[in-house]
Amino acid sequence: MSHHRPDTLAHAPLGRESAYPEHYDAGLLYPIERAANRAPLGIEEGALPFVGEDEWHAFELSWLNARGKPIVAVARFRLPADSPRLIESKSWKLYLNGFNQTRFASRDEVVAILERDLARAAGTAVSVELFGVDDEALAPRRLPGECLDDRDIAVDDYTPSAEHLGVGEEVVEETLYSHLLKSNCPVTGQPDWGSVLIRYKGPRLDRDGLLRYLIGYRQHQDFHEHCVEHIFMDLMARARPERLLVLARYVRRGGLDISPWRGTPGERPPLPLRLARQ
């Protein structure tokens, strides 16, 4: 399969039995057009209502040096939200596994190859950083702001409903978060566990309603990136904040974690923010 060709989930490796590659193969990357999943949310390519990135960490990256000795690293990838394509996660894992028994002259060569292949698949430049396993940059941290999870609410709706989102008249600037985010893989149905942070300036969000809304993703089937965009669009439509940042940090699966964020222009997440569950 050419890594230049975007495709649909019909032929993706996700949910299929796969043979793990023994050597490097850029053709394993499986790009998927973002537009199809954005259209139902009223998001038009070329006129995105947000800025953002999909941040990935790969914890199972290894290759051989010129003398055949294994090298291990943790990789951080940042894929811009305005890229025309995302990369399906299992194909990314298979691609990275192809490095395991392949010799490379240097760490810089590995970075250059990763940047080249991922950019071709995504349709735009992708940032690549490599870290040692014990690097302080990978130390887990806590989310800032106020946690919503101890609120004593009754819940009977486990599908996303913007009707739960209510606001008051007071304009505030605050950061709220929850560790109760859960969605499901749209192909395999496997659970995707995560935490979500919402930082905004605008009419004060009703906390009980916001928590009910976030819990509503519990049976929702979608990719991590699309869940974050769904949350962003619903909050913009219902609360109309002056500024908004939505950041989700999903628990790793298959050696990869995905942490997308979307914000109004000028917003940036408080990095680094790897959590203990990741």
From TrEMBL:
<comment type="pathway">
    <text>tRNA modification; tRNA-queuosine biosynthesis.</text>
</comment>
<dbReference type="InterPro" id="IPR029139">
    <property type="entry name" value="QueF_N"/>
</dbReference>
<protein>
    <recommendedName>
        <fullName>NADPH-dependent 7-cyano-7-deazaguanine reductase</fullName>
        <ecNumber>1.7.1.13</ecNumber>
    </recommendedName>
</protein>
<comment type="function">
    <text>Catalyzes the NADPH-dependent reduction of 7-cyano-7-deazaguanine (preQ0) to 7-aminomethyl-7-deazaguanine (preQ1).</text>
</comment>
<dbReference type="InterPro" id="IPR029500">
    <property type="entry name" value="QueF"/>
</dbReference>
<feature type="binding site">
    <location>
        <begin position="89"/>
        <end position="90"/>
    </location>
    <ligand>
        <name>NADPH</name>
    </ligand>
</feature>
<dbReference type="Pfam" id="PF14819">
    <property type="entry name" value="QueF_N"/>
</dbReference>
<dbReference type="GO" id="GO:0033739">
    <property type="term" value="F:preQ1 synthase activity"/>
</dbReference>
<feature type="binding site">
    <location>
        <begin position="224"/>
        <end position="225"/>
    </location>
    <ligand>
        <name>substrate</name>
    </ligand>
</feature>
<keyword id="KW-0560">Oxidoreductase</keyword>
<dbReference type="InterPro" id="IPR043133">
    <property type="entry name" value="GTP-CH-I_C/QueF"/>
</dbReference>
<dbReference type="Pfam" id="PF14489">
    <property type="entry name" value="QueF"/>
</dbReference>
<feature type="domain" description="NADPH-dependent 7-cyano-7-deazaguanine reductase N-terminal">
    <location>
        <begin position="20"/>
        <end position="130"/>
    </location>
</feature>
<feature type="active site" description="Thioimide intermediate">
    <location>
        <position position="185"/>
    </location>
</feature>
<keyword id="KW-0963">Cytoplasm</keyword>
<dbReference type="GO" id="GO:0008616">
    <property type="term" value="P:tRNA queuosine(34) biosynthetic process"/>
</dbReference>
<keyword id="KW-0671">Queuosine biosynthesis</keyword>
<comment type="subunit">
    <text>Homodimer.</text>
</comment>
<dbReference type="InterPro" id="IPR050084">
    <property type="entry name" value="NADPH_dep_7-cyano-7-deazaG_red"/>
</dbReference>
<feature type="binding site">
    <location>
        <begin position="253"/>
        <end position="254"/>
    </location>
    <ligand>
        <name>NADPH</name>
    </ligand>
</feature>
<comment type="similarity">
    <text>Belongs to the GTP cyclohydrolase I family. QueF type 2 subfamily.</text>
</comment>
<feature type="active site" description="Proton donor">
    <location>
        <position position="192"/>
    </location>
</feature>
<feature type="binding site">
    <location>
        <begin position="87"/>
        <end position="89"/>
    </location>
    <ligand>
        <name>substrate</name>
    </ligand>
</feature>
<dbReference type="GO" id="GO:0005737">
    <property type="term" value="C:cytoplasm"/>
</dbReference>
<dbReference type="InterPro" id="IPR016428">
    <property type="entry name" value="QueF_type2"/>
</dbReference>
<keyword id="KW-0521">NADP</keyword>
